[in-house]
Hints:
Layout: H1 2-11, H2 18-35, H3 41-56, H4 64-77, H5 82-114, E1 119-123, H6 128-139, E2 143-149, H7 157-166, E3 171-174, H8 179-182, E4 188-191, E5 195-196, E6 202-205, H9 208-217, E7 222-225, H10 249-252, E8 269-272, E9 279-282, E10 285-287, H11 292-299, H12 304-308
Parallel strand pairs: 1-2, 1-4, 2-3, 4-7, 7-9
Antiparallel strand pairs: 5-6, 6-8, 9-10
Helix pairs in contact: 1-2, 2-3, 2-4, 2-5, 3-4, 4-5, 5-6
1,5-di-O-phosphono-alpha-D-ribofuranose is lined by residues 16-20, 125, 127-130, 156, 191-194, 204-205, 268.
Amino acid sequence: MVLTKTADDISSMRIRGAGRIARTAAGALQEYGTSLDCDTLAAFVREMENAADILCGTRPTAVSLPNAVRFVMQGVQGSTTLEEAQGALNKRAVEFIRDSLAAVGKIAEIAARQIPDDAVIMTHCNSEAAIACIIRAHELGKVREVYATEVRPRNQGYITIQMLSDAGIPVNFIVDSAARMFMPKVDLVITGTDAVTANGAVVNKIGTSQIALCAHEARKPFIVAAETYKFAPRTILGERIPIEYRPIEEVIGSERQLPAGVVVKNPAFDVTPPAYVDLIVTEIGAFAPSYAPFVIRDHLGWDTSEFQKDYAFTHHYGE
Length: 319
Ligand SMILES: O=P(O)(O)OC[C@H]1O[C@H](OP(=O)(O)O)[C@H](O)[C@@H]1O
């Protein structure tokens, strides 16, 4: 069944990257809804809510996932007939996917303006938004070279260097622990994000906060490329973004042995405090992290009454 397969692809990281996960979830909801043979609106909504729960349960950290699901499901839940719900599902899924792709292009355009001539850029993990910014700056003739980290344990750095190399950008590939050593050679750091909290903290691939700390120490700008659906509304209430811990086999591999009793920890993400973030570039503009609550209220449209609703654990789809 397509839904179970998509859920499995996301949790196993065959489909990964916060934006891609969000678009895939929107597309999967649409496909699943089209395949349903329900006689009543209530049955359709129930099936769709169940599907939404399955998708939202795949990976806990990237808020793009529940934000995308919420956007699509609002059309389903707000309909008064079955036909209206089916139409709204299709319309909203298509709209989300289209706007998500367009947002990456806009972010790249805005961020490229922030990048100085002859820039040496460091990036971490594999973010389509961050890479789009670097490639756009390269098209404008502004990029000298990039330092791309390996990104243990899943090694997404290899995907990044392939994408940058394919675009004709000179790349230095370094292990994660070499970031501080090379920071003096770098003009700025740019990464993506899985979630931006209401106070402007950036949740991104494990190791990001160390790189931001090094950038801060070396007085190098730390820029985050973030579509607005990466902002986490419910953090305004003080809710925390859960950090995903992944299987320990990702870290130790099968060829390594550890003494009995050793605890292996494999957090996939960390939190960079707003004090270490210079600029967040979104499709609606570039701003300081302190502007995050206004994005949530004014752009994502979460007003105070929405926050006060008594949400059940499931079916709220918004962080
Ligand atoms: O949405 P885009 O910019 O592509 O990626 C944003 C972030 O999503 C990724 O998470 P993972 O590799 O799925 O764990 C990385 O942490 C990356 O920085």
